[in-house]
Write a structure and sequence with these properties.
77% of the residues lie in helices and 1% in strands. It has 15 helices and 2 strands.
């Protein structure tokens, strides 16, 4: 019996060590998160370890988490989507205008729920439409993703400003505001939304033909094309997926703020890209994990919460983001060089010693 338990324990430890070796980025993020919690818990235990602080973290995670997932999926395909935040803003404005146009602020019960469903569908469709336009520019017109989405980011921002005239849009029913501010027990509803969307996206990326094709297109578009994959179709679906994720983020933005504005989330773009890369996504395409991005989102939010409790400024938090990102990139680059050298040594043919003829 003891031998059986020892064998199982040893097997479990071996699997754990193998996972850490295979997922060094994930293990590093877990260690970093633990270190952040430990440091701020020692500095301000009465505030940092409070239930209120963790609920605040849970409320702040979903928006940036969804935008980071939108950035991740575009990275996996070998591109980039700089318009994720502006797409989210368009979706949040769509929600607000549907509610205001139908006079939903004073509605209750079934009528409010019906209008809310209509507004949510319209917002998601707006995100998909914005993403489809990105996909068209990238896959059909052939514009480099960074230039295409830079242009659409500017376009979407301009549309939002023109439509709103720079003013915030109000008039949302209480049932919608619960989506961004309510809780189930002690768990924020918006966090549940993020987790559900994350699970669905993980299944799509890892368990479906579309996910495999996105990874293949990102890793080697020429090889994927010769393998019979329709690169244009894959890229179109990729950017539409990114737009839908940004649209859901925009819904949560409007719900949590009880309003929609053209400049909401203006600081989120670089943060979303930082989180996607910090979560192990290869910016050159071919690889990325939902779990890694979610963990990176949590890690930076833990840092942000600690900075707020310590009364440090947003500028200092931005510096911390840059330091963490550069450290991770340097560590990954050093690891890649070590692995390349080891692979080169293993691949080198064995050179036999010269045979000296007998005299």
């Amino acid at each position: 019996m003891n031998r059986t338990l020892d064998a199982r324990f040893g097997s479990g430890v071996a699997r754990g060590v193998a996972w850490v070796q295979r997922e060094r980025g994930i293990a590093r993020l877990i260690a970093l998160s633990a270190a952040v919690v430990l440091i701020f818990s020692l500095l301000r235990p009465e505030y940092y370890l409070s239930m209120t602080n963790f609920q605040t973290i849970g409320l702040a995670l979903p928006e940036i988490g969804l935008l980071s997932l939108a950035a991740m999926i575009s990275f996996i395909s070998g591109g980039i989507d700089l318009s994720v935040v502006s797409t989210g803003v368009l979706s949040s404005l769509t929600v607000a205008y549907v509610f205001r146009g139908l006079g939903a602020e004073e509605m209750t019960g079934g009528s409010a729920a019906g209008v809310m469903l209509l507004a949510l569908v319209a917002a998601v469709l707006m995100g998909a439409l914005a993403g489809a336009f990105n996909g068209f520019l990238v896959s059909v017109v052939g514009i480099t993703p960074i230039l295409a989405t830079l242009g659409t980011m500017t376009l979407y921002n301009g549309l939002a400003i023109v439509v709103t005239q720079g003013e915030a849009i109000y008039g949302m029913p209480d049932v919608f505001l619960e989506l961004g501010n309510g809780t189930v027990g002690s768990i924020p509803i918006s966090l549940i939304v993020l987790l559900v969307v994350g699970v669905v996206l993980a299944v799509v990326v890892n368990r479906t033909a579309l996910g495999t094709r996105i990874r293949l297109v990102g890793a080697n578009p020429t090889a994927s094309r010769f393998s019979g994959i329709n690169n244009r179709h894959v890229l179109m679906l990729t950017y539409m997926t990114s737009g839908v994720l940004a649209g859901v983020a925009g819904i949560l933005m409007a719900s949590r703020a009880a309003s929609a504005s053209a400049d909401y989330g203006s600081s989120y773009l670089l943060l979303a890209i930082t989180i996607a890369i910090l979560g192990g996504t290869n910016p050159n395409g071919g690889f990325g994990t939902v779990f890694g991005v979610m963990l990176a989102t949590l890690t930076l939010q833990l840092v942000s919460s600690g900075f707020n409790i310590m009364r440090l400024t947003a500028f200092e938090y931005t510096i911390a983001q840059g330091v963490v990102l550069i450290a991770v990139i340097v560590a990954d680059a050093a690891g890649d060089r070590r692995r390349s050298r080891k692979a080169a040594v293993k691949a080198a043919p064995h050179v036999a010693a010269p045979v000296v003829p007998a005299s």
